[in-house]
Amino acid sequence: MPHKISDECIKCGACESICPVSAISEGENQYQIDADTCIDCGACAAQCPVSAISEA
Question: Which pTM does this prediction carry?
């Protein structure tokens, strides 16, 4: 199951740089995860400083 980014996202970009498949991109108000590309490795969730990433 892919991960999702909640409204707590502070747009720091830490998750984007750690994603091994480049599934994360910057959106208008927060970063977004492409569910079709996400391999559910959890690296982004571990990197997020505000715990805004969880399993969808």
Answer: 0.90
